[in-house]
Protein: Thioredoxin reductase
Organism: Lysinibacillus fusiformis
Amino acid sequence: MMNQYDCMIIGGGPAGLSAALTLGRARRKVALVDNGTNRNRVTQESHGFLTRDGIKPQEFKNLASKDIESYPSITMMDQTVIEIIKDDITGLFLVNTSENKTYVTEKILLATGIQEEFPLPQIRQYYGKSLFSCPYCDGWELRDKPLAIIAENEEHISHMTKLVFNWSQDLIVFTNGHQLSKKIQNDFEQKKIKAYTNAIKDLHGDDGNLSSVELEPGDNILRAGGFVVPSFYRPNKFAKQLNCQVDENGTIMTDGAGRTTAAGIYIAGETEKGGPSSLMIAAAEGFKAASSINMDITIERF
């Protein structure tokens, strides 16, 4: 069949791109399907990836795509997958897209990642430019600046504040109407970290650069950036629909090498844990899952 593949990779972030490269080099017929909705598309710079520190995510993607173009067995598709159905008789998968295309594949690699939900919709205006969620990725650029920590869960507040304190000690915590325990308040006071438990009315700034946080009583607190703790969700239900088992923490269960509990279905990157990951770790997990896919195909066909 013209549209039949050894493996279809759903998602073209670092995990999917790495997996495609690995499978292409293993002479597998691969389709990489991506619709450009990866969550780091709003980021100005990506950090912590050796030889590419500070690169723009789109440039990283372009370079990876250029690498992949060297392997004729890889097809890249700008499409959106809307349905994956397993044929119980053949064991193959039918992949349907919103462009009314149908493809057949022996293996599926889910690398669609996750998306963020924020405690305030206004955060989107600043996210990726002056508000971030990962200090390891962006703490260096905000070092020693007056920063805001915006989070609502006390455990998350404590963790993020302690972590960011390594890069800047000029911190103010905003809980958006959620109270803090006496212990956390005392911990912050000892480090001269002020915490506001009032609801946040608005964020102010220009062109994505935060300048202040406005509270409900009318106080306007000057800040030059900061970190937020979003909640995360998987943007599709493919893993559930394909009967991949999930543990009590929401992590998709695997053998540690990308194989899920559903035959023929593999995962890589942020899709597995439902939480954020670095570019380097995601790319490494893409390589690992691709190696499992290639080995399984090899054994099954030998």
